[in-house]
Design goal:
Elongation Factor Tu (Ef-tu), domain 3; Rossmann fold; 34 strands; alpha+beta
């Protein structure tokens, strides 16, 4: 098995949305015989985008998986989504790969989302081969795209293939290592030829620069190159492979996936330059232990994706980290401490699954059906040698919506339908708001939430409405109030109710919370009733005074009261505490607080003015900005109510090139005009109820 593993490749296709990754995957599968014809995204016929929502959107919303053989060597491919709405779990997919094919667009070059994707690749410490796609398109500019790899991403690109022509004249490439031309035919094949005379003068200096870049990655080789002025082809190839594995060099291929141009050259680069599973560093566990990427080590597999299949049910997709996996075996789920029965080992080709009759070793992307307990992020391992891989960090969720059923009374159906999606999408979070009783769904962006709701509707036949969730305003005291009485007295036919308490109330510093001080002396209120006063105050403060939002950061001192031997009870003193609280709020005054978010926006420099102006119009306070390599990062404090739908607005403002993160910062007093609207809305809702 080791000999086969040396030539096995497991890699991910990565790049910004719209750069053509799925088309590149289609081209590779077609050239290797994995599919019989080239599908098109526009027609919904690609092998890896098969979900109805993907066909409708014309873009990937979940990773696609494929395997093929190239020159008799096994390759496993992961096609990752490029849209930031759907790649919040990219770190999990990269954890399953040994290398990356990084795709950029010859028309757009490096965009802000390209930089974000490259940062993820760097964080995963994966070697990469770059592919400049869409050389056949109008406005394709190879040199601009190539230069942006160095200038914007800070990588050291090594050009393996130089394009012959561009746009409608893109007809071939120059193999820079072999120093010969490859001319495309109508079916994607190539024939060798002399380098065209009109570019021969350009190619020479570019090839010299390529050799210098490769030589610079090896001191010994650099000395030889300086002394002798030339290197053998084998020396160049060997140094290039070493530079790629050390992540110092990034080889660059070019092509046009839709026209099936450049596929075999990219496949050769993947085979020759990306690492095998045996090259992978030892895997690090949650407890700091290490597991070598070796077929001789005990078995361990990392579950990095869960899919739902209409026929097979839940599909668990995992990477074999170590050891050998066989059909009809048993593994331990190290997270749950329970055993899972492995029946068939399935190999994915888009939506199709093929059973593997052979055992599979490190690097294999394996799918298992109908596991009982295993979820995304779990590790399955040899029960005699437990191991749990340290989970990669997921991207931060950015937006929350409230869910409501189209028909009243179907709340539980809505919750149940959305909860089923959580197994296959770890970037979704489902919760209930205790204040509003809303069902809340949190995800990576508006499209992410909308597509998830559409999925739930289609699969589980429940109509779901999306609404903007209530902003979690808070209330707090304006000042102090002393000597406030809360007295509850009720006489009925039988036993009456009596509770009487006196309190002082005062505001606390922000984030100090609630404090209750028992200053009763002389037994004016029996000890067993004092907690009831505290509880009555807390329950009332949770309902708020102004607009139904929790009142926070205040101190109550209970200093006097009276009771009745027969009629007093915990309930009576709880009501008395609530009455005292309401009177105290009326006397001290209450103000509304709004949540303030720290928003960090990254946009191309030319959009900086528009974005800052927009943030200011949202009552934002810009804290500062920093520009690097043509991208400006702006940090601001903005009220949450102003950025609930910021994702689509930013996308529209920047042509899809802006990205942002958002996290809660603090509460500030709400401006009077905003507070009046919130209070009026609360009163209106109360009147309707």
């Amino acid at each position: 098995m080791s000999d086969a593993l040396k030539n096995q490749r497991t890699y991910a296709l990565v790049g910004h949305g719209g750069c053509g990754k799925t088309s590149v995957a289609e081209m590779l599968l077609f050239n290797t015989g994995g599919i019989a014809r080239l599908g098109k995204i526009e027609e919904g016929t690609t092998a890896l985008d098969f979900e109805p929502e993907e066909i409708k959107r014309r873009g990937s919303i979940q990773p696609g998986f494929a395997h093929y053989k190239w020159n008799k060597n096994q390759h496993f491919l992961i096609d990752t989504p490029g849209d930031s709405n759907f790649n919040g779990d990219l770190s999990y997919q990269l954890a399953a790969a040994d290398g990356v094919v990084f795709v950029i667009d010859a028309v757009d070059g490096v965009k802000p989302l390209t930089r974000k994707a490259w940062k993820d690749v760097q964080a995963a410490q994966l070697p990469a081969v770059a592919f400049i796609n869409k050389m056949d398109r109008d406005r394709a500019e190879f040199q601009t795209a190539f230069d942006s790899l160095k200038n914007s991403l800070g990588i050291k690109p090594v050009l393996l293939y130089y394009p012959i022509g561009a746009r409608e004249s893109f007809k071939g490439v120059v193999d820079m290592l072999e120093n010969t031309a490859l001319i495309f035919d109508d079916k994607g094949g190539v024939s060798k030829a002399e380098i065209p005379a009109d570019i021969a003068d350009e190619v020479g200096p570019i090839r010299e620069a390529m050799i210098e870049n490769i030589a610079e990655s090896d001191e010994t080789l650099m000395e030889k190159y300086l002394e002798e002025g030339a290197l053998s082809l084998e020396e160049i190839k060997s140094a290039l492979k070493a530079g790629v594995l050390s992540r110092e060099l990034v080889p660059v291929c070019v092509g046009a996936a839709l026209e099936n141009k450049g596929g075999p050259q990219l496949l050769d680069a993947v085979q020759a330059l990306l690492p095998s599973p045996l090259d992978h560093p030892a895997w690090v566990g949650e407890d700091g232990s290490e597991r070598p990427s070796s077929p001789e080590a005990p078995a361990a597999c990392f579950v990095f994706k869960t899919l739902a299949d209409p026929f097979a049910g839940q599909l668990t997709v995992m990477r074999v980290l170590s050891g050998t996996l066989s059909p009809d075996s048993t593994l331990l789920n190290s997270a749950k401490g329970e055993k899972e029965r492995v029946a068939q080992l399935l190999l994915m080709q888009g939506k199709d699954q093929t059973p593997s009759k052979e055992p599979l070793g490190p690097g294999a992307i394996v799918t298992l059906a109908k596991l009982k307990l295993t979820k995304t992020g779990d590790t399955l391992c040899d029960e005699k040698a437990p191991f749990a891989l340290k989970k990669p960090k997921l991207a931060q969720q950015l937006i929350t919506y409230a869910l409501a059923p189209a028909e009243k009374g179907d709340e539980d159906k809505v919750y149940s339908a959305m909860a089923k999606l959580l197994d296959e999408d770890v970037t979704l979070t489902l919760s209930r708001d205790e204040e509003s009783a809303d069902i809340l769904i949190t995800g990576m962006g508006q499209n992410h939430i909308e597509v998830s709701a559409d999925r739930a509707k289609r699969r589980y036949k429940v109509d779901i409405l999306l609404k903007t969730p209530k902003v979690p305003y808070r209330e707090t005291l304006k000042g102090k109030a002393s000597e406030i009485q809360g007295r509850h007295k009720k006489q009925t036919g039988g036993r009456g109710q009596f509770g009487d308490c006196w309190i002082h109330i005062e505001p606390q510093p922000r984030n100090a919370g609630y404090e209750f001080v028992d200053a009763i002396v002389g037994g004016s209120i029996p000890r067993q009733y004092i907690p009831a006063v505290d509880k009555g105050i807390q329950e009332s403060s949770a309902r708020g005074y102004l607009a139904g939002f929790q009142l926070i950061d205040f101190k109550v001192t209970l200093y006097d009261g009276s009771y009745h031997n027969v009629d007093s009870s915990e309930m009576a003193f709880k009501i008395a505490g609530s009455l005292a609280f309401k009177k105290a709020c009326e006397k001290a005054g209450v103000k509304l607080l709004e949540p303030i978010m720290t928003v960090t926006v990254a946009v191309p420099d030319n959009y900086m003015g528009d974005v800052i102006g927009d943030l200011s119009s949202r009552r934002g306070k810009v804290l500062g900005s920093d520009s690097q390599a043509g991208v400006t990062e702006i940090k601001a404090h903005v009220p949450m109510s102003e950025v609930l739908k910021y994702a689509p607005d930013l996308r529209s403002m920047t042509g899809g090139q802006g990205t942002f993160t958002m996290e809660f910062s603090h509460y500030e007093e709400c401006p009077p005009q905003i507070a009046e609207k919130v209070i009026a809305e609360h009163k209106k809702n109360q009147a309707e109820e």
